[in-house]
Amino acid sequence: MNRFTLSRGFTIVELMITLAIAAILLAVAVPSFTGFVQKCAVSQKTLQVHNALELARGLALSQRQVWTECTVDASNSCVSSAGLRLLVFRDDNDNNDF
């Protein structure tokens, strides 16, 4: 028997070609994946805002009171931009403060 017919494994050329193909596929896939992740994040935030609006609407209808939604900063005061989280609260005196 020939000594090459019994050998099992990959040559260095085969491994290099496989790595080159994997690198090309990865280079093509990464930009698409980051776009997908960004779209998922926007979709999740949109769903959170929608759910907060539905909660405020449902509470206002069931309790016949004014409920307000706003984004709050670290000091828990309503801000128009760069808020950390979304808050739904009953606004008895209509001053957007809870």
Automatic annotation (TrEMBL):
Entry keyword NAD: no
What keywords sit in the KW lines? Ligase, Membrane, Transmembrane, Transmembrane helix
- The transmembrane residues are 12-37
Keyword hit for Membrane: yes
Question: Which parts of the chain are coiled coil?
Answer: none
Q: What is its EC number?
A: 6.3.1.5
Q: Which GO terms describe its molecular function?
A: NAD+ synthase activity
Q: Signal peptide location in the record?
A: none
Its protein name is: NAD(+) synthetase
